[in-house]
Amino acid sequence: MIKRASHVLAFWLFLISATIFVVTLLSLIFFPIAVHVQHLADIAGMSAGKVYHNYVQLMAYLYNPFSGDVVHLDNFIVSGSGARHFADVRNLFVFDIVVMLVTAWPTLRYLRQLTQKHERYELVGQAQWGILVSLTLVFAMALNFNAFFIAFHKVLFRNNDWLFDPRTDPIINVLPEDFFAICFVLGFAMFLAVLFWLAITGKRDAQRK
Predict the structure, then answer these.
(1) Do 22 and 190 touch, CB atoms closer than 8 A?
(2) Contact at 8 Å (CB) between 31 and 52?
(3) Hey, how many other C-beta atoms are within 10 angstroms of the C-beta on 153?
(4) In terms of residue numbers, what domain contains 147?
(5) What end-to-end distance do the CA atoms of the chain give, in Å?
(6) What pTM, to 2 d.p., does this model score?
(7) 167, burial (CB in 10 Å: exposed 0-12, middle 13-18, buried 19+)
(8) pLDDT tens digits for range 76-102
(9) Which backbone phi and psi does 64 adopt, to 5 degrees?
(10) In this structure, is the dihedral angle defined by the CA atoms of residues 190, 192, 193 and 197, taken in order, positive or negative?
(11) What domain count does the chain have?
């Protein structure tokens, strides 16, 4: 029982952390689209290439555990509170990677065993609960993304450094709420796709038994 519980815990931690990691990486691909669609270069008063360059610099900082507490962007000033927030985000990003790497092997081995034994039905109930919770969050996000986004920050951060002032942290001008909404939608879509796949394959295994 304890062994199974540890496998299940590792599975959920891996699924959540891997989803976050993949979405943040994919943001490097669709951020240029957001720059074009939302005219972020015009808002920032610089070329689209420079805006993207600074975003890449920011992401490089967030994924570097040895980057220190000061983020350097070539074309944007960063205030003290802004730097503290980015440092907090970096710590969360690094923690996410650690969790993903630690849980990857036990999760993949567990899923492989369930697949070989046609016992993926063990995860059907959990997948269904995961789908229900995810859809509830998606519904709340669709009703009022701003409120959802604020609640998200209040849960993750113990201070108000995430409330950027465009005058002291102009980077926020090229990181609009709509961009983060796209990130959340993509993350939930990926998460739900895995859960639906587990529910469907699990039911198939149950029918075999």
Answers:
(1) yes
(2) yes
(3) 14
(4) 2-208
(5) 21
(6) 0.92
(7) exposed
(8) 999 999 999 999 999 999 999 999 999
(9) -110, 110
(10) positive
(11) 1
